[in-house]
Amino acid sequence: MVLKANSVFERDFITAKERFPKLKYGWDAKIKMWVITGELDICDTAGVYWNTFQIAMLVPRGYPYCVPIVAERSDIVPRDIDWHISPEGICCLDTDNSLIAMSKSGINVGDFIAEKVYTFFANQIHKLESKQYAGAEYAHHTAGVIQYYVEELNIPSAEAAIQILKKVLNKQGLSRNDRCPCGSGLKVKSCHETGIETIKSFGPVKIKKDIENIEKHLSAEPL
User: Fold this and answer.
1) Distance between CA 31 and CA 1 in Å, rounded?
2) What fold, for 8-130?
3) What is the mean pLDDT of residues 109-126?
4) Phi, psi (deg, nearest 5) at residue 72
5) Positive or negative torsion for Cα 92, 98, 104, 106
6) Fewest CB atoms less than 10 Å from the CB: which of 117, 122, 126, 137?
7) pTM for the whole thing?
8) Where do you find CATH 3.10.110.10 in the chain?
9) Residue 138 gets which letter from DSSP?
10) Residue-wise pLDDT tens digits, 140-162
11) pLDDT digits (tens, 9 = 90+) for 187-209
């Protein structure tokens, strides 16, 4: 069957299907989302077949400015937090912050499957075989949020992240020539300007939640 592109999503899915031919899509009017279902074959870098996963992927109609929800239907991955998958099979592909930041720039469904979904399941196979992930594993819950700010946005500490988050939330002291709230002594334009712009894209609800969770996490840590 020749697919016709009537929307941005459908246009992108046609290209994605060339890379992942066992996937198909439909529009669910009840939940107002595109639904991708089918099989995802996983191979190693040499092209050697590893395994096949049954997946379902919900893509909000705000595509491409959205974060798809991905679930495994094949029950290959243990349903456990240490495997980054919920009891219902919902996959934790990355930290919320990273996915939100990515969605603000717009995603491409084919690239998202290749870079996030395919990589997630390839890593799960690696762990099933070797008992550990191929790359560095990100932490769970608030620890993962802190890891995002420190590693992805290069903020020196959780405490410094809180200071920047509060400045962004209150919309103060963040002009390019102000001292960066991270404590470096440098001006914003020479320090965390890009990271601050990324944080702004999260919106006040997410920023406030991160502040509260990080502060709670730090207060719970042993002295």
Assistant:
1) 26
2) Ubiquitin Conjugating Enzyme (3.10.110)
3) 95
4) -95, 130
5) negative
6) 137
7) 0.85
8) 8-130
9) P
10) 788 989 999 999 999 999 999 99
11) 999 999 999 999 999 999 999 99
